[in-house]
Design goal:
This protein is an alpha+beta fold. It has helices at about 1-25, 40-45, 185-190, 255-290; strands at about 65-70, 75-80, 85-90, 95, 105, 135, 145-150, 155-160, 165, 170-175, 210, 220-225, 225-230, 235-240, 245. Bound molecules: 2-acetamido-2-deoxy-beta-D-glucopyranose (3 copies). It comes from Spodoptera frugiperda.
């Protein structure tokens, strides 16, 4: 039981690291619309959606404010110093009535639920993009990691970190088993072996791990029948006995160059540690000598 919990915590850390590294490049081709790779940012926005009674266009209740045009998800009225002007979000973006006035109010569809504001301007597709703005999945259910960011109708293609799939619903790279239109087995090229199900106890609890056949640093985690792929850090490899990543020189399945490299690194670390201990011992002695 303890072990399962620890393993789970480790996985979360791994996933968070991946999402963070991804966020740094996702922000480059941004359209001035709000970028939201940050987990935890979007769902609250949708829940907080306040439904205000529609009001006639052209009325300002405050000097500076914005409100939706009745029935439309991308048209809004902007009051600047008491003067109302009707505006339209760029094709593919939607008006979010719940953002601060200082924030650009046109955002990606995953951040704005239109509810009964269902009308949208006609799409303005280009040969690269179905709308002028937005993120769109490329590939198919076996090839889930590619996506396209459309900016003014020009597409910029990206790929999720290895093992993750693009989710059109959350606008993020997710585990493939959490993405509806991704076939995780086909995408990762791994089928989780079936395990015997006990009549009395049901399916076995916890996660199962399998080292990849062709790469000793790569391993699969099976949650039920769905695989996720994970990677050990540099110079470490997956050890089937302990279900952890250990120094690669200890894993017979690794190629000899990697094992030799890992052994070298380990030896260097040992020597460094020995030197540090020696140094610490010396300085402590010196200090003792000085204070006495
Ligand atoms: C806003 O409107 C007031 C009153 O009409 C005017 O005096 C002021 O200069 C305006 N401010 C700006 C920034 O346009
Ligand atoms: C809106 O922006 C103002 C000025 O920048 C800030 O003081 C206020 O806290 C913001 N409100 C929200 C809800 O973020
Ligand atoms: C997967 O999709 C990408 C983007 O459309 C494409 O470039 C790539 O060739 C596809 N790979 C396979 C194996 O189909």
């Amino acid at each position: 039981m303890d072990k399962t919990l620890i393993v789970f915590a480790c996985l979360c850390g791994f996933a968070a690291a991946q999402f963070n590294s991804f966020g740094s490049f996702g922000a480059t081709a941004n359209a001035g619309a709000y970028n939201n790779y940050n987990r935890g940012q979007q769902p609250q926005q949708q829940n907080r959606q306040v439904q205000e009674a529609p009001r006639p266009t052209g009325v300002c209740r405050e000097l500076n404010e914005r409100y939706p045009v009745s029935g439309s998800c991308d048209k809004y009225v902007e009051c600047l110093n008491g003067t109302a002007e009707e505006k339209l979000c760029p094709d593919g973006l939607r008006f979010n009535p719940n953002v601060n006035f200082s924030v650009y109010p046109c955002q990606y569809p995953n951040e704005v639920s239109c509810l009964e504001r269902s009308a949208l301007q006609p799409a303005q597709p280009t040969d690269q993009c179905e709308h002028q703005f937005g993120y769109y999945k490329l590939g198919d259910s076996r090839n889930c990691s590619y996506f396209r960011n459309c900016v003014n109708g020009v597409g910029y293609d990206f790929q999720c970190p290895e093992g993750l799939a693009w989710s059109s619903a959350s606008y993020r790279c997710e585990w493939p088993d959490e993405v509806e239109d991704c076939d995780a087995e086909a995408f990762l090229g791994f089928r989780c072996p079936e395990v015997p199900i006990s009549k009395e106890l049901g399916a076995p609890a916890g996660f199962r791990y399998y080292r990849a056949d062709n790469n000793c640093q790569k391993y699969f985690l099976c949650i039920g029948s769905k695989p996720r792929v994970l990677f050990c850090g540099s110079n470490t490899a997956y050890d089937e006995l302990t279900n952890t990543c250990v120094s690669a020189d200890e894993v017979a399945a690794c190629p000899s160059e990697l094992r030799a490299q890992a052994a070298r690194v380990r030896e260097e670390e040992k020597q460094l540690l020995a030197k540090e201990l020696e140094f610490n011992a010396k300085t402590t002695n010196k200090r003792r000598y000085q204070y006495n």
